[in-house]
Specification:
The protein is mainly β and about 240 residues long. The chain contains one helix and 14 strands; from the N terminus they run βαβββββββββββββ.
Length: about 240
Amino acid sequence: MLIFHSIAPTNAQNTLSQAANLMQPGDSVTKERVEYVYAGEGGEHAVWDFSNLDSEDTYYIKYDTISESQLTGYDMQKTYNYRLTSDSLLMTGYESPLLSIDYQQPLLIQYFPLKFGQTYSADYQGNGRYCSTHFERNYGSVRITADAIGTLILSEKDTLPNTLRIYTINTEAIRLNRDSCRNDSDNLKLVITEHYQWYALGYRYPVFETITSSTLITGSVLMIIFQDRQSINVNETSNELS
């Protein structure tokens, strides 16, 4: 199920589109992890100053094509499979050394076009194997919002006006058991991931990202058992728009 909401009309020029922002086969994107920084408030005329952040490490993501509507992305840990429709980029599955997931109802990654004030929501569900010994069932919902537009400052010499921020929240339930028939009766783990991406005019890929992931277990008390936070500076791409 895909749900569309328009929060408020706007005359902002920066709009996320397939032509300008869809990953391209053959592209290699280098990302630099930096110290975590708060994403800031949403709205118009925002100013984000992410300059002078300490670097932690770097990694890359590469993209290849399988067919006209299918793409693969991979980094040092995972391989991701995507399917493109007329208005959506969907993830159909992914694989790592420990886990493989196939989505029977694909995971919405991006909706096109998307401009400030618009929101799209969709459900997803998939099944997989963990360590080749446990069956895993994943299901949840994704909400994608173009929640802010403004000026992004990455350094004294790198100020990017009319930058569009995309906020994605993914609420995922995970059930794991050695017996696939018992998945629905197992203890439930919840993972809530909040992902902010800043898209600047003239760049295909987001120039900055923050990701916060919280893992919770259910029972008589809801308890956070793990939380990961990271900020990512996309400092090199092979496909910068002219």
